Amino acid sequence: MARPPKRRLVERLPVITYFKPQGIPMSQLSEVVLTVEELESIRLVDLEELDQEVCAEKMNVSRPTFHRILNSARKKISQALINGLAIRVDGGNFQIALSSFLCGQCGHKWQGTFCHRHTKCPQCQSKDWKVDQ
């Protein structure tokens, strides 16, 4: 019997989960589905510019597994851009990682899951916070 796959750690859920080519009605579009962990791999490597080994550790997977996730994400994004497909971010095998936060107002530090729209300092209710590395 095969071992069940490990859940990948993801720092945050995407705020926007659907992208489509401009000017094409939804009824005429095909789409590719990008999993949440595939989007996370793109964020870590291409946006945060982290080394793949560091990314694999952050997502709690082996380096070869991370490489496969990243390649799958890049292939899907390329297909969508070249062929004019919509991209829907949905599903996957993941869990939200705990993040450390620092309040810019009162200096309070706390841990929780990242949700940009709803996160407030639990001590002073300020929205002036940042992710504490």
Automatic annotation (TrEMBL):
One Pfam assignment: DUF134
InterPro entries per the UniProt record, alphabetical: RNA_pol_sigma_r3/r4-like, UPF0251
Family: Belongs to the UPF0251 family.
The protein's name in its UniProt record: UPF0251 protein Desru_2684
Organism of derivation: Desulforamulus ruminis (strain ATCC 23193 / DSM 2154 / NCIMB 8452 / DL)
